[in-house]
Amino acid sequence: MGWLEGTAAVITGGGSGLGRALVDRFVAEGAQVGVLERSAEKADKLRAEFGGTVVVVAGDVSNYADNVAVVQQTVAQFGRLDTFVGNAGIWDFSTRLVDIPEDKLDELFDEVFHINVKGYLLGARAAIGELAKTGGSVILTVSNAGFYPGGGGPLYTASKHAARGLIAELAFEFAPKVRVNGVAPGAMLTDLRGPSALGLAGTSIASLPLAELMENFTPLQTLPEPADFTGHYVLLASKANSSTATGAVINCDGGLGVRGVVAVAGGLDL
Ligand SMILES: NC(=O)c1ccc[n+]([C@@H]2O[C@H](COP(=O)([O-])OP(=O)(O)OC[C@H]3O[C@@H](n4cnc5c(N)ncnc54)[C@H](O)[C@@H]3O)[C@@H](O)[C@H]2O)c1
To answer: What burial class does residue 238 get, using C-beta atoms within 10 Å of its C-beta: 0-12 exposed, 13-18 middle, 19+ buried?
Structure first.
């Protein structure tokens, strides 16, 4: 029996990368799933693969009505909502402040924060009524950039720090009925795109040499697959296994927090 048997979840950005791996894992654990996904192509692919078993809403996390729609359609189909996973995001391709064209600052700020921060806020607001009925939880995807500099430029890093702020504040506000936690993965090969304000909406993080980066910079010296992060979400979503956790963020970035000041090459060789 799966850890999420009899529950229903909404996952934003479920069309590719980590979100898609979460859809697969939540279904495998017995959950019924609704997805909010901006890409019409990815939404169609989900529908084709899952038929009616996954509710798919094509829409934008930065639009409140779209968040309401995915919650309502998920509850209409499955009768309940236990978990809201805020996950859809974009990356700024580590663009430094001085490299952002001055005439793009406003547009870029709005684009990154509307998706990465406002999207989480609107999703939590749309879901809280249903989550309170089931004693459910919110889980937000953070990033190593929610803790350390250099995993993004100032906009991405600030947006992921803001996600941690939302986790703390909402965990406080939604208690005791609804838990709010986060998962902070490190780099993985996905379709993570850049902002259109920088002309990077069609560019994916998969175009970068991430394996080499992770091998050289993280103590665990490996580039994980999106699926490798899904167990952390299952744990937090499972009331039986994490009923005491709220306001927590699981760091699963390959050990950046214990990196120390020496080269990681080699490591413990036993
Ligand atoms: N890939 C990495 O190295 C990495 C590392 C740490 C954290 N993350 C975080 O993981 C999360 C998932 O990203 P991913 O790497 O799987 O990328 P991804 O692009 O493969 O998945 C994100 C999904 O969200 C969708 N999406 C984007 N904007 C949207 C919007 N406005 N409304 C609805 N859907 C939207 C995309 O179409 C895509 O399907 C993000 O929050 C990202 O910041 C990624």
So the answer is: buried
pTM for the whole structure: 0.98
How far does the centroid of ligand 1 lie from the alpha carbon of residue 269, in Å?
A: 35
Q: Give the pLDDT confidence of 217-268 residue by residue, as tens digits.
A: 899 999 999 999 999 999 999 999 999 999 999 999 999 999 888 777 667 7
Contact 259/219 with Cβ under 8 angstroms? yes
> Looking at the domain 8-255, which fold is it?
Rossmann fold (3.40.50)
Q: In this predicted model, what pLDDT tens digit does every residue of 140-169 receive, in sequence order?
A: 999 999 999 999 999 999 999 999 999 999
Active site residues: 156
Q: Provide residues with CB under 6 Å of ligand 1.
A: 12-13, 15-19, 36-39, 42, 60-62, 87-91, 115, 141, 143, 185-188, 190-193, 205
